[in-house]
Structure formats: C-alpha cells, structure tokens
Amino acid sequence: MSKMDDDYLLDKAASGARLVPEEGLVLYAQADLLDLGLAADAVRQLRVPGNLVTYLVDRNVNYTNVCTTNCQFCGFYRPPGHAEAYVRTYEEIGQKLAELASVGGTRVLMQGGHHPDLPLTWYTGLLRYLRKNHPTIELDCFSPSEIDNFATVFKMTIPEVLVELKAAGLAGVPGGGGEILDDEIRRRVSPLKQSAQGWIDVEREAQRLGLATSATMVIGFGETLEHRMNHFMRLRDLQDYSLAEHGNGFTAFIAWTVQHSELTSLGRSKRKEEYGATATEYLRHMAMSRLMLDNFKHLQASWVTQGPKIGQVSLKFGIDDFGSTMLEENVVSNAAHDTYDKMGEREIHHYIRDAGYIPAKRDTSYNILQVFENAADSESVPTLPAVAPRQTQDVIPLLVN
Length: 401
Ligand code: SF4
Hints:
The chain is of the alpha/beta class. 42% of the residues lie in helices and 12% in strands. The strands form four sheets. A four-stranded mixed sheet has the order 10-1-11-12. It has a three-stranded parallel sheet with strand order 2-3-4, covered by helices on one side. Strands 7-8-9 form a three-stranded parallel sheet, covered by helices on one side. The protein binds iron/sulfur cluster.
C-alpha cells in the first residue's frame, strides 16, 4: 500500500465511514501513530462532541477467588480447598457497598472466580440482600464466563440463569473474560474458559433482556493483528444486531494490555518475553478501536494497566471516558506488581484537567451527574477514600454460606 492509500483510508476513517477489516488491517499495520490518533480523535468528536471527559465512581468487589479454570494470565484465583481461598459473606460485601455509597459511588462491579459448588440461591440471595440494603448502588455483576459456569453448575440454560439473576436485582453484566475473541488464542491462554462464541452468546442474551453490558479486550497474548481484528468484528456485528433488534447494545468498550509477572503462569513461561504490549501499542490499539468500533459511543481509558499519564495521552487517541475510581481492584493488580490499583475522584479530576478537558461524573448509563467546570469545583470531591487495598494479603477462611 502506498502513502496515498494510507491517506485515503485515514480520511475515510476520520469521516466516520465504516472500514472493512482489510482496510482496518492496513491502517493498523502501517499508518503513522499520530495520524491514527488524529483520525480517532476526529471520530471521538463525531460520536461524543465536546470537551468533557467522563468518569464513574465505583468499586470492584470480588466475592470469591475460588476458581477451577486456571487461566494462564491469572494471579488472582485459588483452586478449591487452597489455604487462601475465600468466599465473602453477604455482610462483608454489603460493608464494601456502604463504603462506596459514603463517597458518592453509584455502581459496583462484582465478579469472582468460577466456583464449582455455590448454588443459584447464594447468588440470588446476595443480589436481593444488596438491593434491599444498598438501593443506591447499581449491581453490575458476573462476567459472561461466570454466567457460563453458573449454567453448568446449576444445570440451567444461559437465558434461565440471566432471568433469575435479573429478577433478584442484577442491572448489568460486565464484559470481563473477553480477552481475545478468537478461539485460537483462547485455547492457548484459557483453554477451560468459554469459547469466543460463548462469550458473545451471553452478552447477546443479556442485551435482549435489557441488562447493561460493556465490551472488553486484552492485548498482548502473542496474537496477530488478524486476531485483534476478529475481536473487533465480533463486537461490531453483535452491536449492529442488538441495536437494530432492541436498541440495547454495549454501553462502552475498554481494552488493556495483559499484565504478567512471576505471579502468573504466563509470566513464568519460557515464552514470557512474547507477552504484553507497550504503551505505544496500547495507544495504537485504542485509536484502531475507535475507528473499527464505529457503532460504539464510549471508549474507556485503562489507567490501571497504563498508569495515569498514558491514560491522559489516550484521551487524544479516541477515548472519551477516564474509566472509574475502582476503589478496589484485585484481578489485574494480582497479575503484576506495577499496576495502579486505585485512584480517588480528585486525582481523576487532576489528570483529566491537566490533559485539557473538563471532568464530568457520570452513572453507568453515561448520564452526566455533575460537571466540574472550574478547578475550584474539584475541591468538594473526596481525596483517596479510606477503603481496603488489594485482597490477596487480606484473605479470610473459606466461608460458603
Ligand atoms: S481469569 Fe477468571 S476464570 Fe480465569 S482463572 Fe482467573 S478467576 Fe478464574
């Protein structure tokens, strides 16, 4: 491809026109990084015009680290019976939501390992308990691979499981476990996890039921650009389908780079040098995400894996949302030593403003709750809240209710 072809594709992309995968691959492989950023930023302004950068005050809660799936990149899980295995009690989880509410949080993202024994009533009971005692917190819980595990353990279909969870108070299904939606990669790094189609099927059903959903992607498993493009196309196709069928598609897309250290099998493997991705690759990937996912409105930064500075830079590469406070994050943080496991609301304001934008607090559905036009407005928000840090050093004995 010539420079003229690149320019034509960049102009086409920047206009918001749909790129076919072959065109996307050309840009991904050879376009100048800053040109990609400019095109992605132009599309960001088409989809989300203006100078606001949004963020969410939320908390990740992990109700159990017991898991039977043994993903190669995971440093979080413990096998059943392990001395550090835990299942949080309803009261412990409720206390975490109370802390979240006390700092103005509106959403909990609750996920766990693939527990082999907990019954459906444990999960529905938990949702009802949280709904009753913490009604201001939206419950986005259980990623597609957990839902898949539930269906196996409960001997139910995916739709049956989702209907029961929704009736108990579930508001959304987070997009965890997407990694790379290509089975060639999934068979290598998470062979016991659901297939790419399985992940899509759960999200499609959740969208059909009116639940909130988000899409995720993790790069750096040694995948090719074609694998990444396959992931984009699966998401874009489902988004087209769900928006046309019932107007309820993914609210947002977030990607990050795989974290690995000696804490994970991936990081201990002989091929460990092949894994991971640089900040430059991350920025290129986010720009391509904005250009290929033309039916997604919101793209989130991943300051947890990239650090706040690259999070800021990514706002010029098609991203319109700084993600969330994650008052507690355990899964990504337990895969490596150098991730950032929490950021207060005031710190988020600082980084957004420092990058030339205006911070705006939102809810899960991207409704703006408050705009902090001037720096003085930020002084009213809390600094780092006093909540517990990572969990692994803070485990409790196995408590199966
Ligand atoms: S990533 Fe999730 S499914 Fe995989 S081992 Fe970790 S907890 Fe289990």
